[in-house]
Amino acid sequence: MSSTGLSDIWEAASASPYQPTVSKDLQFTFGFALLLVAFLLSGTFGLNRSLVTLPALGIPASLAFGFGAVYMICAVGVYV
């Protein structure tokens, strides 16, 4: 068995704790902004549907909605 066990890795990781990209205090604001952007982009895409606007509006709208929904769910205390 190797000399580096799970406890050694655990102790090494304690020196640098995990810092999330978006802090807990900003999750609601960030999630709300993403959902607002998703709403605007999807509305614009719905009015001007074509293959040209799909990569420009449709894909960013769906990504913003997906990430915004997860941030909002986490911000209000429902952990997924």
Structure in words:
This protein has 80 residues and is mostly helical. The protein has a domain of 55 residues. It is built from three helices and no strands. The mean pLDDT is 88. It is found in: Membrane. Pfam families: Ost5 (PF05251).
Short description:
It holds the Pfam family Ost5. With 80 residues, the chain is mainly alpha-helical. It contains three helices and no strands.
Strand portion: under 5%
The percentage helix is: 55-70%
The overall average pLDDT, rounded, is 88
Globular, elongated, flat, extended or rod-shaped: what is the shape?
elongated
Distance between the termini: 36 Å
Which residue ranges are poorly predicted, with pLDDT under 50 across at least 5 consecutive positions? none
- Kindly state the number of beta strands: 0
Order of helices and strands: HHH
Main pleated sheet = none
Q: Which class best fits the helix and strand makeup?
A: mainly alpha
Query: What is the C-alpha radius of gyration, as a whole number of Å?
Result: 20 Å
Number of helices: 3
Organism: Aulographum hederae CBS 113979
Pfam family, one: Ost5
Main location: membrane
GO cellular component, one term: oligosaccharyltransferase complex
